Amino acid sequence: MAIPRPASDRPFGENARLVGRVAALWRYPVKSMAAEELGAVDVSWHGLAGDRRWAFIRDGQARSGTPWLSISRRPDMVHYRPWFAKPDRPDASRTMVCSPSGQAFDVVDPALASELGGGLRVIKLDRGIFDAMPLSVITTQSVAGIGELIGAELDARRFRPNLLIEAVGPAAFPEDAWVGHVLRVGRMRMRVDARDKRCGVVDVDPTTALRDPAVLRAVAHHRTVCLGVYGSTVEPGHVDVGDPVFIDT
């Protein structure tokens, strides 16, 4: 008798097909600070547990559409590394930040805001502080494709995704074709809502904080400024690195 596959390995619709596997998972406890790499994560209606719940806001920007401190303005933000004191309960945990000097701060410590610069304060939103939608996805093929255009090997973290997917098949930039469809990623289902319009953040190397303007130029010239996709949760669930990704066509 055949052994049934685990639920996470079975398609979720009659027309479902395998499009890839999860290559990496990242969340960003503090917006614009360094990524936290994960082996597994729970995904709720508000994205990955603990993702982008905190941000530093600039005084005098109340009417700005993007009032928070960002990597495009402060590339050195990628050298501040946040983590959760209770990693198994990120949404209920104290959020800590390690500065480039190695000093640890609670994210709400005024000393951290002072170190980042004058006129800053920190805010928290339990539903997350997202530019567009709570889930961001990019494929290894898209990262490699932009790298080939500029003659450099690029770190996927430059594009600040939540999910890095290694797609199946020969198609370049395969996630473009997923817009308007539902994916099942592990035990989570998400709708792919839109292509991800990029900004100067992609020019910043996530390790060195050095800028390479060739990256955004290539995305703008060859990709109409879009790379990767945004999505929203259809059914909350658990995701592990290595999980299959199915699309319901």
Automatic annotation (TrEMBL):
PROSITE patterns, per the entry: MOSC
Species per Swiss-Prot/TrEMBL record: Micromonospora carbonacea
Name this polypeptide is given: MOSC domain-containing protein
GO molecular function term, any single one: catalytic activity
A Pfam family hit: MOSC
Domain of life: Bacteria
Alphabetized SUPFAM superfamilies for the sequence: PK beta-barrel domain-like (SSF50800)
